[in-house]
Amino acid sequence: MDILRLVVQQWDRFDGLVHGFLGRGGGRSQPPYASLNLSYENGDDTQTVTQNWCDLKLAVGLHDFNVVTAKQVHGDTILRVSSGTGKRVGVGDGLMTDATNVFVGVMAADCVPLLFLESERRIVAAVHAGWRGTAAGIAATAIARLKEDYQIDPSALHVAMGPSIGPCCYQVGLEVAEQIGANWKEEMRGAWLPEGAKGRLDLRAINDAQLVAVGVPRRQIQQLGLCTACNVEKFFSYRKEGKTGSQLSFIGWLP
Ligand SMILES: [Zn+2]
Fold this sequence. Notes:
Layout: E1 5-6, E2 17-22, H1 46-59, E3 66-71, E4 78-81, E5 88-91, E6 94-97, E7 102-108, E8 112-118, E9 123-129, H2 131-136, H3 138-150, E10 158-161, E11 171-173, H4 174-183, H5 185-188, E12 192-195, E13 198-201, H6 203-213, E14 221-223, H7 238-241, E15 247-253
The structure holds zinc ion.
Zinc ion binds next to loops.
């Protein structure tokens, strides 16, 4: 099976940009990690994961570059990455860089992967937002950090959200809605569909609303890919499968 890589069509015009939201096919890991698991944190065989990384980087033309990832903990920390940073950098659920020879990536298996870019100064970020990160407003935090560290106005940013669990499959308790609603009441409108003592949450809709709330023009926000839980033949889904692998989403500029 080939590697499945979804790209944002609207970003074709950005010369030198390399990005992708990957699926689970085309790797070497055995079940329950079959097959393109790129996380070292879930119990998969380390050597196999390293081989998957090598295969992937060759397939997307990045063999000579670092794709930097972090230890993700469902928080809202955004790490700043430079050209001297190694392949792994600290603990955080978002990474950003202004280096044109460095790529940043996040892992997900239901949570929303978000990729950010600014095309003039060639700045990128990658963020992982599950419900906890969404409640903490990690997408908005990323926008604030890009503004603070690189003086990037939110109106200059393009953002894309990749395959993640849809409201079709994401039933959660009221306490989850309350925690998100505590900070993002307006943004919860349309993203929460109550069903008695529980409800269905649309994680991408609320992240979209958070981005708009902090100044990213809606026409510059894209959503692509299917519900991970509805499509386990293509994507890893923690909710559907329990112990499983993680798919990578990555972005950066060639020098
Ligand atoms: Zn679904």
